[in-house]
Amino acid sequence: MIDRLIDSRSFDSFDFRYLGLIAAILGIGVLSIHSVTHAQAGGVAPYYVKQLMWILLGSAAFVAMLVADYHRIARMAYPLYAVVLLMLAFVLVEGRTSKGAQRWIALGPFSFQPSEFAKLVLILVLAHYYSKVPREGWIQRVVIPGLLVLPGLLLILKQPDLGSGLSFVAVYLAMLLMVGVRSQALGVLLLFSLMLFPFAWEGMWGSLHDYQRQRIMAFVNPDYDPGGKGYHALQSRIAIGSGELAGKGLYGGTQSQLKFLPEGHTDFVFAVYAEEWGFLGVLLLLALFVVLIWLSLEIAVKAKDQLGALLAAGIVAMLCFCVVVNIGMTAGMFPIVGIPLPLMSYGGSATIMTMASLGLLLNVKRRRLSLFY
Q1: For position 157, what pLDDT does the model report?
Q2: What are phi and psi of 112, to 5 degrees?
């Protein structure tokens, strides 16, 4: 019996390479947050301390999602989605507003963002649906899942939270690919969406707010409103470029330390890191993310059942999308849409959700390798 408990395959299911990568990226994130916030008034640096607390809570969520049976978690998908939809609706009525967006529910001195947790719940919903429902027809494969996605997507866009809304769409499209919808069909869907863009731009459906249109204009024309809506993107590119080959060193970044770069501890933490550690540091960080995503893809490919493969694929799609879009927008390759960099940006909801998702991902591998499942 003892031999079975310490079987090497069960031990390997924890994959310490995976845990090491997560810890390394979290450590880089905390260091960058500390660097950009340590000089606050009175010498107080609350952000990195709070981030350490979020990481502890995220670690608890990671362990909880790791040890539970993901089949049981998936069976709770629809009730969880109903709860999330109620919270998203509550946000629009009584949510806390910050910087023009109403996205948070206040709980005493703390607040959380339901749209972040909605991403993981959506993955559970779609994975559970596709693992139980026949997928022979277009309605079963595309229309019904799309109707499941739509309520959460509309509530999130209403906040407005374009970044989380795009994450919803990315997860949905990734799931369609996983269940065998042809890439040509997805191309038609994307083309149709682009055809609707002018209507959203003019505000016929109220999809794009004024500040979102201005951000897109600043992306298309970098010189558009450099002191206003284009300021974030401009300062971010300056910070990244000034890091050059080896960077300016910890606490040495002028754009971040002199507060030219706004939101350096949240959405633009990559720019802070790039300025301080340069091109070589960026290569190291990208290598950590690439290896983490590669190992995650391996889990999806080798999952023991369809539900596990769908869960893993959805989480990988969400992780890839957030990494690519965040780094792309800070480097000026994409418009600014407010997507945090996974495991690095400051924020309790995003950190806890990401770590819970990675715990669920490793759960899929653990169930494949364990002798008891």
Answers
A1: 83
A2: -135, 160
pLDDT in tens, 91-114: 888 777 766 667 778 777 777 888
Contact 148, 123 (CB under 8 A): no
Backbone angles phi, psi at 101, to 5 degrees: -120, 140
Gap between the Cα atoms of 223 and 234, Å rounded? 9
* Contact residues for 126 (Cβ-Cβ < 8 A; gap 6+): 145, 148, 149, 171, 172, 175, 310, 314
Q: What is the mean pLDDT of residues 239-268?
A: 83
The model's pLDDT over 244-253, given as tens digits with 9 standing for 90+, comes to: 888 888 888 8
Q: How far apart are CA 237 and CA 246, in angstroms?
A: 16
Distance (Å, whole) CA 22 – CA 20: 5
Q: What is the DSSP string of 243-275?
A: TTTT-S-TT--HHHHTT-STTTTTTTHHHHHHH
pLDDT for the residue 100:
61
Q: Which residues contact 361 (CB under 8 A, 6 or more apart)?
A: 296, 299, 311, 312, 315, 316
